[in-house]
Each structure stands twice: as C-alpha cells, then as structure tokens.
Amino acid sequence: MTVIERRRRAEKPAGRSSSTIRKASFVAVASVTALVVTACSSGAGTATSTSAGAGGAATTAAGGSGASGLAAAAAAVKAGLALPTWKAPGPSIDGTKLKGKKIFVIPITSQSAFVQQVEPAMQEAADAAGVTLTFFTNQGKPDQWVQGMNAAIAAKPDLIFLEAAPDPRLLQPQLQAAKAAGIPVVASHIWDEKDPDAPGCVGCENLTAVVKGPFSQAGAMTASWTVNDSQGKANVLLVGIQGINSGDLVIAAQKATFSAQCPECKVKVVSLTLDQITDGAIQPVTTALTADPGINYIIPSFDILTAGTVASLKISNRTEGTKVLGFGGTGVVMGMVADPTSNVAMDAAEPLAWTAYANMDQAFRILAGMSPVQSVTPARIFDRTNISQAGSAPNYADGFGSDFKAGFLKLWNLG
C-alpha cells in the first residue's frame, strides 16, 4: 500500500492503470473482499424462498395487489427515471477559508470501480477550495486500514475521511487515537437515511459525521421496475452478500416493495459468502436457476455481483427471457444496460460525482467548525429508455446533470 498526495485533478493515481479500471473481474473480487469484511450485521443462512407477501420487512412502498399495485409500480418507475433534484444539505460554507487544509482519505479498497470513479471528483472539489487530499492506497484488508489510520494520525491532517468505507468497528483503537489527537473522522457509504447519524449509527462511536447512501431507495427502485416490467408476473431471485448492512437495507426494501406492489410475485433470496463471489458463474445462482426454471428476473444487491450473475445465466442456458438488474451506477454495469444484447436491463445508479461532492461538503463543514448535516445521496433508474442520458463509456457519468456541482460550489462560496 502507498500514500499518494494529489493537488491537481489531472494527476493520475499511482498504481492504477486504465486497463486495471476496465478489468471488471479484478475490481469485483477486490470490492467484494472489502464489502464482506465491512459487515455491519450478521447474515444467517445462504438461501431462503418466500412469496413476496412473506418478505418479513415492514411495508414502506405504496401499492396493493392487482391493478393498484401495478399502478403504484408504474408511478414509482416514472419517478425513478427522472433526474433527481439537488438541494442544499445545509447552510452555506465560506470555502475560501479552507485553503491549505489537509484531508487524509482511506478508501475501502483502491481497486473498487466505485472508488476509482468517486476519488477524482473528490479531488476536483478539493482543488476548488485549495484543500490537499492524500489518498492511502490499499487492497481492502483490515490490517491495511489500520496502517492507513496510523499513517493518517502520524501525518496530522486536519481531517481523516473513511471512504465507502472501511468498517469503523474494526478501527476503534485508531479512531480513539485520532480523537485524542484532535483529528475529526468522517465516513461514508455504509449507512442510509433510515440509520441514525453519528455517533448513533452502527460502528460510529468515535466518528464525527457520516455521509449516507441510497440503499433503501435503490432496493425499492429495482423491485418496482421489476413489477412494472413483468406486469405482476415476476419470479425473482435476489442475490445478496452475508453480513452487509447496506446490502441488508437493499434486500429489505425489495421485499417490502414486492409485498406492497405484487404479493403474487415469487421472491427467493440467495445470500453469498466470500468464496462464492466471482465474475465467473456464481454457484448458488446457478443452483437456483436449475431448481426453478421459472425465474425470470435476477437482482444482485450490488453491481459487483452482476457479471457473475450473467455468467450463471449463460452456463445455465437461461439467457433467453431472464433479465438482470443492478445497483451502483458503475461504468461496467451501465455499459451492459446500454448494450441491447445484454441481459442486464436496468441499473439503480448512484451519482458517483455527486457522492464525491457530498463527501467533501460534509468534510468541509467539519473543517469550517460547523455542525455536520444529514447527508444522503440519491439514486436514479437507468434502463434502455434513458441510458443515453448517462453519457458514454467508460464511466457513463453524465446521468445526474450538473446542477449538483454548481449548487455545491455556490454553497461553498467558490462558484
């Protein structure tokens, strides 16, 4: 692992070639390794099978059986396809006073496609304020996060940012040391709006603030899209990873939405362990496809599972009539949505540059001596009706407009 200091957005992160970014299998395995070790709740069992009405999650989506459920799903899809509106998360910041501040960034893993698209936009925002970012390169191993925290504390930055995020529960001694040294720590992308803010969220005892992701929103989006697309005739396989708080939120929202909008839909869940994750065929997915020839929709909890899901379809000779949905907005999966021959029909995308600016907004507030804000980033449905709005390969990064960027810069008095 290495420490990389970047001041100019044009600089290229050391150790990250363009070919590495495009190699989905390498990125996926590294990302999954990090996700599994950042578990914020425990998974039980590897597979369950229920009807949508027996999902076990509180219903949060409007709907009902028959026509009313389909109408609710159609309305949700229409809303989800629309461009999200940026709103200022809090009062304005005098960004001109942040020049010279230093932030030490420790990502969950430097090999994640998500991180590789978020970090350049964080750098862009930092450059606008004259803030120096130092990125700690790692491969998603907890002992490396510990080393990163130790390096950060030794460097005495003005703030430490855990990006996307190393599990804070595994870093409590280091977080306590940072607190004792007077260094605030912000973390992102483990929790969503249903979770309390720091210090009340899981693992947040020694965090100053958090930035939340759209996990429940995205789960509801993928379920509503499926109900609408199938017109209430979906036989769904949900694919999750054991012990991931954010993934549990996604699946809970999917179950609740199917229960509300399509109680007649069949919903099964397979929950994967680390050794089952691959860009090749995923064995539990292949087994489920063999056991139930009627499965016509597969929804992985994260984009990192999408390639393996598609491989399972191919090895099972089930590419005809089966659709795959994703969540994340990473360039590889958005490219699959853009490919009319692909089984991947939809992605509940996150705005990766918007996420980066939200990260920096929360960090800037702490650096300015202000209180943290309730910071939650949105998601948007992309399917073949609107994927052209997302831009082009390799990142498909244009689907959330530019209002968020102009809005943040104005909020920071930098634009």
Secondary-structure map with pairings?
Elements: E1 3-6, H1 18-22, H2 24-37, E2 47-51, H3 66-81, E3 102-107, H4 113-129, E4 132-136, H5 142-155, E5 159-163, H6 172-180, E6 185-192, E7 209-213, H7 215-230, E8 235-241, H8 245-261, E9 266-272, H9 283-291, E10 297-300, H10 306-315, E11 323-328, H11 331-338, E12 344-349, H12 352-367, E13 380-383, H13 403-411
Parallel strand pairs: 3-4, 3-5, 5-6, 6-7, 8-9, 8-10, 10-11, 11-12
Antiparallel strand pairs: 1-4, 2-9, 12-13
Helix pairs in contact: 3-7, 4-12, 5-6, 7-8, 9-10
Q: Which short descriptors sum up this protein?
A:
13 helices; seven-stranded mixed β-sheet; single chain; alpha/beta; 415 residues
Task: Briefly say what this structure is.
The chain has 415 residues and is an alpha/beta fold.
* Helix and strand sequence: EHHEHEHEHEHEEHEHEHEHEHEHEH
**Unreliable runs:** 6-34, 36-45, 53-61
Compute the CA-based radius of gyration. 21 Å
Distance between the termini: 36 Å
Number of helices: 13
Strand content: 15-25%
Strand order of the largest sheet: 2-9-8-10-11-12-13
Total DSSP E strands: 13
Largest sheet: 7 strands, mixed
Write down the overall geometry. globular
Share of helical residues: 25-40%
Structural class: alpha/beta
Mean pLDDT rating: 87
